[in-house]
Amino acid sequence: MSRGSGTGPPPAEAFAPKGPLRGRIRPPADKSISHRAAIIGGIADGPTRVRNFLDSDDTRSTLSAVANLGAMVNPEPIENMPTDFVIEGVGPGGPRSLGRIDVGNAGTLMRLLPGWIAGYDGGLWRMNGDASIRKRPVDRIADPLRLMGAEIEVTDGRFPPIRIDGRKLHGIEYELPVASAQVKSCILLAALRAEGPTTVIEPLPTRDHTEVMLEAAGANIERRPGSVTITPGADLKLDEVEIPADLSSAAFFIVAALIVPGSRIELERIGINPTRTGILTVLERMGAEIDVVSLASGGEAIAEITASSSHLRGTRVEGPRSRLPLTSFPCSPLLRVSRKARPSSGTPKSSSARSRTGSPLWSMPSRVSGRISKPPKTA
Q1: I want to staple 341 with a disulfide (CB 3.0 to 4.6 A). Which of 252, 281, 337, 353 is the partner?
Q2: Backbone angles phi, psi at 200, to 5 degrees
Q3: What percentage of residues in the chain have a pLDDT greater than 90?
Q4: pLDDT digit string (tens) for 340-378?
Q5: CA-based angle 206:208:210, to the nearest 5?
Q6: 3-class secondary-structure state, position 252
Q7: Is the Cβ–Cβ distance between 349 and 317 less than 8 Å?
Q8: Which CATH superfamily is domain 15-27+244-369 in?
């Protein structure tokens, strides 16, 4: 049977690396931090200047929801989304009681916002979104909020739309059944209005952008290994938030520099929150040549990263300390170590990936080649 019949696999075509790649870039802003900047800026008392906000459908939904709840955004994102703007938060007065909140397709908004509004007695809100969002479970946030005294209804016991009747909340100690930064963040936001302290216990560490931002805003927060406690009463004042460039987006450029001979790419103001650097930890074990220079910042850890072509060795990715964020997986197949390399699960005795202070940092493979299938032609 001929290949052109469309019934067999399409022909494969070999490709060789191009390069070298050289330049200086700043990847897109971090979406997780952008969501939290909009929400916590809306909660805070007074103005918060947000810099380098990500323009996406999801973050626009979050900013729109915060504005509809009473926060003022200047300049308003009427047609074009400004990367820098000021949010005038609602402060102690609380959010406006709003009939409906459209979250679009923003799962982070759907799971975090109820934590803010659930504790305002007398308010009524209904949250809904597109067809996709209505298939995503929200019972994991509804259950702990109910334990705190919230009145919250979800569809079929598990899904959006959500109805929230504001009630007075009380603090709890809650152990997450499954590690989730979104569920943890929802509970912490609700804890700001609860009577008494609230403690969230994690089975595994998750990203801590909410904790970092609440701490910067002056919240009474105590962080210990495996748990975090919020004691209400503090007035939040955030002042300024810089959204760092997203490490998951930067990972593609880092990989490209490492695997294409003669390459050197500089990446500007990348977020290096320790809960997000799993891929860099893996790369360190592989011996990549990466230079990381930490920069002064008022909240999230930020750095300049320079990646240069490297000869890398194989490694195994296993265990909770080596977990990669899902957004880093797409670049993993781009890596191919030399045939003589042998995977190693241990940490090498030496590494060429080091910070300016001499401590080990992060890494990847040396050469890439492969075969790529062409899609079948259509009439």
Answers
A1: 337
A2: -110, 130
A3: 69
A4: 344 544 443 333 333 333 333 333 333 333 343 444 444
A5: 130
A6: helix
A7: no
A8: Enolpyruvate transferase domain (3.65.10.10)
